[in-house]
UniProtKB/TrEMBL annotation:
The lineage of its organism: Eukaryota, Metazoa, Chordata, Craniata, Vertebrata. The keyword Glycosyltransferase applies. Gene3D superfamilies: 2.80.10.50. This is Protein O-mannosyl-transferase 1. PANTHER family: DOLICHYL-PHOSPHATE-MANNOSE--PROTEIN MANNOSYLTRANSFERASE, PROTEIN O-MANNOSYL-TRANSFERASE 1. Its EC number is 2.4.1.109.
Length: 728
């Protein structure tokens, strides 16, 4: 029974010392002196604001991308005990003692360090030699720009880590496909591919480029599987479903989960929530929720309401009127109706209140029980303070002469009768009998007499002159001109009117409502709105001192000064290793030229290299050249401010191509022993120059030691580089 104890229990472990050494060197190069400088470095001033908002649970919108990367940075702050109290307003500002600098920079540094062993493993999985793989790892290790970008609270190193992890996972999965389909390890690497792709997209939308590349490669591989007669239809269907689950369904689910966590964490109102709809704002703690809590849900005849324009551009505004009238004649000589002005006002004000009136009745109070307003009902909108009716007629608007003027009607006893009937159209209705709801319903007001739609034209920046107090213009727009969000309104504040007398009603307009009805949005409704805002909200792109074009990146004709010591010459720059960048460009050019040559020769039935070498060459190009192309070429189509760091994901793929080209040249073009020896000597000399350049630029990569004026001038290898030199 105890016979198994006669032999010792032996555990054999294989350790790849190349991988261990690269990992250790990567960690040292990225983590050494991580807290230096203890000051805000370049875009830390941008990402740090979001970290503080996470710490305080305050909602924000960042139009640069999804929230996963921001949450990872915030995780570093959370682990370091950061309370969010720091004013991120200036690059170079010294961090206060409550800011855990090392912790905030830790995750980007770890991601950057792990890119080194990932590069090694990718070349191994591409079936290249361990020597070539070691070269790839060392090139990533000694790339100054990747070191700089990974040592601060920035997202590019995290993005590159997940991109490389996705590529490595897919290659491992593909290599297992040949002999162990549907095994545990096969499922692990397939699922990890989808998870890594989702994380890459969740950090920055740039990750979508690599995700699309891997989907295309997976599709091509599956297409080849379809032609395999050894696979049954059932087996093919299982392979298809497994890939669909891992590469599409799981990434989508994870992407949604990033937003779910984001919205769960950020439940408090803040400075960014004003660009969201009233319903979204009301779901946050504080802010609008404090005003709207307990409002009646259903708008009824006699309801007192404020109407917010849904578009919210160039700023949020509410339908507004005041005692002043349109001037008899405008500056250009055109005449007006001289009726009471109606505008869109960007601040909360008692003059934003309107009363929903039944045209067939005189009362301005809600009956008991209330009579709700439904889609298609005809209403009159009475201005709460002046008691004049919202009106439009065939008179040109002050700033938009092709649209109708909107006013509150004043009876001057002339041949201009009131035209104050409006049809309520609920755009997001589920049926034609839907009730008009506070906050939730998006409505359009169609003028009964002229079919014009109530519209805030201020979205093009049309603010009225001094006589209109620079408020935004409101017009009646013909339905034939099409739909626009500026035609859509929602009830934001709402109470049931009880006072028929005007004096009592004015007091009532300042009083809070007492009814309690919840208006919580579902997660999918909040996700859809937030996702749309991220994709469509565009900050004004301004020219930055260190912005550049995509053409500048290939030859590194630009740099970015990240930090300058306030007294000494110590400084940090985003500058790459010149030898590596030039070699990467040459490698890409050699690959394309050789591929064209091989294709032409193969067309002539001449195979210069064995078939397995050709397949290896094509697969390596698909990953490395394809990865470079999809992460670089789209920037030529983007209308946004670009910086050198946008090129780093593409550069990483290009660097992986260098040892691939070197091994291919050594294996297939250097045929004699002498040529191989000379080629090896050239590689050693070339790699020594890579290391020398790395050491030369290390002072501006790590920020120390401080350099003299002459030493800084010596680092200016290109006239286009902006090395900061203090005036003596």
């Amino acid at each position: 029974m105890l016979g198994f104890l006669k032999n010792p229990i032996v555990i054999t472990v294989e350790i790849n010392m190349n991988l261990v050494a690269l990992t250790v060197m990567g960690l040292i190069s990225r983590l050494w002196g991580l807290s230096y400088p203890r000051a805000v470095v370049f875009d830390e001033v941008y990402y740090g604001q979001f970290v503080s908002l996470y710490m305080k649970r305050i909602f924000f919108v960042d139009d640069s991308g999804p929230p996963f990367g921001h949450m990872l940075l915030a995780l570093g702050g959370y682990l370091g005990g950061f309370d969010g109290n720091f004013l991120w307003n200036r690059i170079g500002a010294e961090y206060s003692m409550n800011v855990p600098v090392w912790s905030l920079r830790l995750l980007p540094a770890l991601a950057g360090a792990l890119c080194v062993p990932l590069a090694y493993q990718i070349l191994v999985e591409l079936q290249f030699s361990h020597c070539a793989a070691l070269g790839a790892g060392l090139l990533i290790l000694l790339e100054n720009s990747l070191i700089t970008q990974s040592r601060f609270m920035l997202l590019e190193s995290i993005l590159i880590f997940f991109i490389l992890l996705a590529v490595l996972s897919y290659l491992k999965f593909y290599n297992l496909q040949r002999h162990s389909s549907f095994s545990g390890s096969w499922w692990f690497w397939l699922l990890l591919t989808g998870v890594a792709c989702s994380c890459a997209v969740g950090v920055k939308y740039m990750g979508l480029f690599t995700y699309m590349l891997l989907l295309a490669i997976a599709g091509l591989h599956f297409w080849h599987m379809i032609g395999d007669q050894n696979l049954s239809n059932v087996s093919l269907m299982c392979h298809f479903l497994a890939r669909g689950l891992a590469l599409i369904i799981i990434p989508v689910a994870m992407y949604l989960s990033f937003f779910y966590v984001h919205l769960t964490l950020l439940y408090r109102s803040g400075p960014h929530d004003q660009i969201m709809t009233s319903a979204f704002q009301a779901s946050l703690e504080g802010g609008l929720a404090r005003i709207t809590q307990g409002q009646p849900l259903e708008v009824a005849y006699g309801s007192q309401i404020t109407l917010r324009n849904v578009l919210g551009k160039p700023m949020q505004c509410w339908l507004h009127s005041h005692m002043n009238t349109y001037p008899i004649r405008y500056e250009n000589g055109r005449g007006s109706s001289h009726q009471q002005q109606v505008t869109c006002y960007p601040f909360k004000d008692v003059n934003n209140w309107w009363i929903v009136k039944d045209p067939g009745m005189q009362q301005l109070v809600v009956s008991n029980p209330p009579r709700p307003v439904r889609h298609g009902h005809i209403v009159q909108l009475v201005h709460g303070i002046t008691t004049r009716y919202l009106n439009t007629h065939d008179v040109a608007a002050p700033l938009s002469p092709h649209s109708q003027e909107v006013s509150c009607y004043i009876d001057y006893n002339i041949s201009m009768p009131a035209q104050n009937l409006w049809r309520v159209e609920i755009l997001n209705r589920e049926s034609d009998t839907d009730v008009w709801k506070t906050i939730l319903s998006e409505v359009r007001f169609v003028h009964v007499n002229t079919s014009a739609v109530l519209k805030a034209s201020g979205f093009i920046g049309a603010s009225l002159p001094e006589w209109g107090y620079r408020q935004l213009e409101v017009v009646g727009e013909k339905l034939s001109k099409g739909y626009h969000q500026s035609m859509v309104w929602n009830v934001e504040e709402h109470r049931y009117g009880k006072s028929q007398e005007q004096k009592e009603r004015e007091v009532e307009l300042h009083s809070p409502t007492q009814m309690d009805i919840s208006k919580n949005l579902s997660f999918m409704a909040k996700f859809t709105e937030l996702q749309w805002k991220i994709l469509t909200l565009k900050n004004e792109d301004t020219e930055h001192k260190y912005s550049s074009s995509a053409l500048d990146w290939i030859t590194m004709d630009t740099n970015i000064a990240y930090w300058l010591h306030p007294t000494s010459g110590a400084q940090i720059h985003l500058l790459g290793n010149v030898v590596t960048w030039a070699s990467a460009n040459i490698a890409a050019l050699v690959y394309m030229c050789l591929s064209l040559w091989y294709l032409i020769r193969r067309r002539r039935k001449i195979n210069d290299i064995p078939e397995d070498a050709w397949q290896l060459w094509v697969s390596a190009g698909g990953i490395c050249v394809g990865g470079w192309a999809v992460n670089y070429l789209p920037f030529f189509l983007m209308e946004k401010t670009l910086f050198l760091y946008h090129y780093l994901p593409a550069l990483t793929f290009q660097i992986l191509l260098i040892p691939i080209i070197l091994q291919h040249l050594g294996d297939h073009l250097c045929r004699s022993l002498l040529l191989k020896s000379m080629f090896s000597a050239l590689i050693v000399a070339w790699f020594s120059s890579v290391y020398l350049v790395y050491c030369t630029f290390s002072p501006v990569t790590y920020g120390e030691p401080s350099l003299s004026v002459s030493e800084l001038k010596d680092l200016r290898w290109k006239d286009s580089w902006n090395i900061l030199i203090r005036k003596q």
